[in-house]
Amino acid sequence: MTEEIIIAGFGGQGVLSMGKILAYSGIMQGKEVSWMPSYGPEMRGGTANVTVIISDERISSPIVNVFDTAIILNQQSMDKFEKTVKPGGVLIYDPNGITRHPSRKDIKIYSIEATDEATNMGNTKIFNMIVLGGFLSVKPIVKLENVIKGLEKSLPARHHKLIPMNQKAIEVGMELVKEYMG
Q1: Are 92 and 71 in contact (CB under 8 A)?
Q2: Number of domains in the chain
Q3: Packing angle between helix 144-154 and helix 15-28, nearest 10 degrees?
Q4: Angle at Cα 87 formed by Cα 71 and Cα 24, nearest 5°?
Q5: Are the beta carbons of 67 and 85 closer than 8 angstroms?
Q6: Residue 50, H or E segment
Q7: Could you give the CA distance from residue 36 to residue 34 in angstroms, rounded to a whole number?
Q8: What is the residue range of 47's domain?
Q9: DSSP summary character for residue 59
Q10: pLDDT per residue over 131-182, tens digit each?
Q11: 84 has a pLDDT exceeding 70
Q12: What's the confidence (pLDDT) of residue 55?
């Protein structure tokens, strides 16, 4: 099993940290992983993306041009990365702020109203964990207990008190994701 994932959105949406937690989760599950961030100098508010590869076998290169899964969090990323999903692959997106919804017929498309749900839950910072939960519902490539271990590894100790809230956000995201019918 090898899963090649691109996560893309605005800086400040937790794109890089979502990828980092996913990568740590793979490590906790004994997988080979690659985490390769990409962002401009404007970081917060500019576009950011991260490529994560999780595999049972050694990863020969972190450079990937087509992906099994794209997690898209803004319109610029939709415009850039929708076409990079392999036929038969998966695209997951938050429709908030998206003006041109995905239109491909050769991939599975899922939407997750993570922005609205994070607001409803009273903390917009858990947005990325809701999205991660949606991804794990569609593609359970790592177990939830390993995601929690990944959170412990990637969050500074002073923030470990936030892990239960993040776990709840992941669980909510697992229930919230739905297939997009166009």
Answers
A1: yes
A2: 1
A3: 120
A4: 35
A5: yes
A6: strand 47-55
A7: 6
A8: 2-179
A9: -
A10: 999 999 999 999 999 999 989 988 889 999 999 999 999 999 999 999 998 7
A11: yes
A12: 97
Q: What are the structure tokens assigned to 84, written together?
A: 């990079």
Place of tokens 């749900």: 117
CATH of the domain at 91: 3.40.920.10
Tokens for 139, please give them. Answer: 């593609």
Q: CA separation (Å) from 51 to 1, 11, 45, 65, 90?
A: 17, 15, 19, 10, 15
Q: Contact 69/6 with Cβ under 8 angstroms? A: yes
Gyration radius from the chain CA atoms: 15
Q: 56-71 as b/e, with b when 16 or more CB fall inside 10 Å?
A: eeeeeeeebeebbbbb
Distance CA 171, CA 75 (A): 26
The pair of three-digit structure tokens given for residue 55, joined into one six-digit string: 């595999």
Residue written as token pair 């893309």: 8
